[in-house]
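Schema walkthrough. Field components (list of strings):
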Amino acid sequence: MEADRWLGLDLRHLVALKAIADEGSFGRAAEKLGYTQSAISQQIATLERIVGLRLIERPGGPRPISLTEAGSILLRHADAIQARLLAAKADMSALEAGDAGRLRVGTFQSVGAKIIPRLLRRFSESHPQVEMVLRESQDESELLEMIERGDLDVTFWTLPVAAGPYETVELLHDPYVLVVPSDSPLAALERAPTLKEIVLHPIIGFNHCSAMDHVESQLSSTGRSPNIVFRSDNNGTVQGLVGAGVGLAVSPKLTVDEDDASVAVIDLHGRIPPRVIGLVWHSDRHRSAAAEAFTESALAVCRELAAEPAAA
Amino acid sequence: MEADRWLGLDLRHLVALKAIADEGSFGRAAEKLGYTQSAISQQIATLERIVGLRLIERPGGPRPISLTEAGSILLRHADAIQARLLAAKADMSALEAGDAGRLRVGTFQSVGAKIIPRLLRRFSESHPQVEMVLRESQDESELLEMIERGDLDVTFWTLPVAAGPYETVELLHDPYVLVVPSDSPLAALERAPTLKEIVLHPIIGFNHCSAMDHVESQLSSTGRSPNIVFRSDNNGTVQGLVGAGVGLAVSPKLTVDEDDASVAVIDLHGRIPPRVIGLVWHSDRHRSAAAEAFTESALAVCRELAAEPAAA
DNA sequence: AGCCAGCGATCAGCTTCCATGATCGCAAAG
DNA sequence: CTTTGCGATCATGGAAGCTGATCGCTGGCT
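Field assembly_structure (string):
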C-alpha cells in the first residue's frame, strides 16, 4: 500500500459531501453540521484535491450545485462507509453495555403464538446466562428499522426481506388455512374450497400487515375484491367472530387455535402460497455467540414444528 | 445523528489498529506505517477514548499484546471500511483515466474460443465508443485478484466463486465431452462411456486449472486415478495427440474443435457435472454503463449459443 | 540474583492543520 | 442597476498530532 494522499482523507470530508448532497448547498450543509460555510468549502476543496477530481459542479451565482459523476459515485461509497461505522458504533455500545449476555429479539403478533413460547423455554434452558429481551411490534417495518439502527440483534420476519444490509435464515413455511364456522357447508367439502368460493363470503381480516396484504391481494386476483366486514389483530376475536357466523377468516396456520370447537380449520393446499417465516439480522453487525445459538435453537424448534403436523 | 465523539474518528486510527493486529506490537506497527511508537500509542489511546472501550490488551513487559473482543470486532469493521475505501479509490482513478469508455475484461484460455470472438464482434458493433481491453491470464486466481485490486472491471470465471466482495451472473453451462480418435471403439458405442471405462485409457490433459482439477477429481472418484500421459494448454495440440491415438481427452465442450475429422466428440451426458461459466465483478465498485451493457451482451450471446446445440 | 532487552506509557515542545470571520467575485432576479 | 444568495479566498488563532526523550514494567539471560 503506497503512502498516498488518501491517508489524509478524513471522515468529516465524507460527511460534508453527504450533507451537501442532501441539503443542496454548501451553506445549508455547514449549518446542518455546525460548521461555517468557509469550512465546508475548504473541506470539499481538500477532498477534491485528495481524489484528484471535481466532485461538485458549482455553476456560480445563485444557481444550484450538483454532483459530478465522480461525486455521486464517491457518495455511494461514503454512504456505505458511514453505515458500516454506525454498525461498528452499535457493536461497541452493545459491548459496553455488557451485552455478552443480552439478546434483543423482535417479533410480531402472528409469529408469537406457537413458536415463541416453545423457543423461549428451550433457549433459556440451554442458555440460562443469556438475558432475552423480546420486543413485539404492531408495525412490522419498525422491526427492520430497529435492526438497522442497532436497537435489535435479530428479528422474526416474513421472507423475503427488502433489499438492505440484512442476512436471513429461513425457519419454516407457514401455510394459510381457512377458518369457517364448524357448521359451515364449506367444512363438509371433501376438497379445499377455491379462492373464488371463499371470496363470495364475508371475511374477517387482520389489521393491515404484510401477511394480510398478501392474502387480500391473492383473493383479489380472482377478479372480485374480498368483502372485509371486520378487522382485529386478536386471533381470539377473529375466531370468535367466525364461530358466531359473522364471516370466514384466512389465517396463517400458526396463529389459529385448533382446539376451538366453534370453528373448523380447512387446509387450503397451497391455493395461497405460504408465508415464509425467518430470522433477520444486520449483515454488518457483529454476531454474538448468543445470537448464533438463538438461531440454532429457532431452527431446531421449527424443524420440530414442521415434523409434527399431527398436532394440526 | 448526534454530534458525538465518533466524528473525531480518523482513518489513521483504524489503519493503526490493523497494523498492530498484523504486526503484533506497537513498535513494529509504527515502523511499518512510518510513525514513531509514541504516535501509535497515542493514536490507540484516542481511539479507545472514542469508542469507550479497551481495544488492546497490554500485559506489560515483553509479553505479546492481544486484541480484546471489542478490538477484534472493531477490526473487522475497519477492514470492511478500508476495503470500501480501496474500491472508492479504484473507481476514482478509473474515472480519472477517462474510463467512461474503457472496459477491462479478464478471460482465461478455455472460455475464449467460442464465446469471446462472437461477443466482441457483437459488443463492439453495438457500443463502438467503448474501448475494450482484454486480459487473458493463465493463472485463473490472478483474475480474481485483479478484480479485487481494481485492475479489471469484470472477468469471466467458472462459478461458483470463492467468498469475497463479488457479484456474479451465470452465463451458461458448459458440459464436458470426451474426445477420442475417430476410429476408437468408444466412438462406436450407442451410449456414453462411463467414467470407469474412460479412466482405463491414457488421458491427454490440460495443465492444471480449476476445470482440469475438477475433471481429474471426478475421474479419480472411480477409485482409479487417471493416467495422464501428456499435458498441454493448447487445444489444437490436445486434439492432435488424441487424433494420433496417444490417448483420450476430457474437455469442456466449448473448447473443442468439432470440425476436426481425426477425432470424435462424445457427449458424456452429465457424467461429469458441467462447468458453469459466468461473469464476476467487484460488488463494492461502481458499475459503469459499459459494464452493464457488456453483461447484457454476454448474456444474449450465451443464450444464443445454448439455443444452437445443432452446431455441435 | 542481578542485569538487560524489549515493550508501551507519558510528557514537553514544536509543527501542522483546520475552523473562523471577513471579504470578494459572480450571476440571476427585482 | 441594485440587491441577494452563493461559493472562493485569505489571514489568523487555536487545537490536534507527531516527535524525541524518558520512565516503568517484566521476562529471559548470564
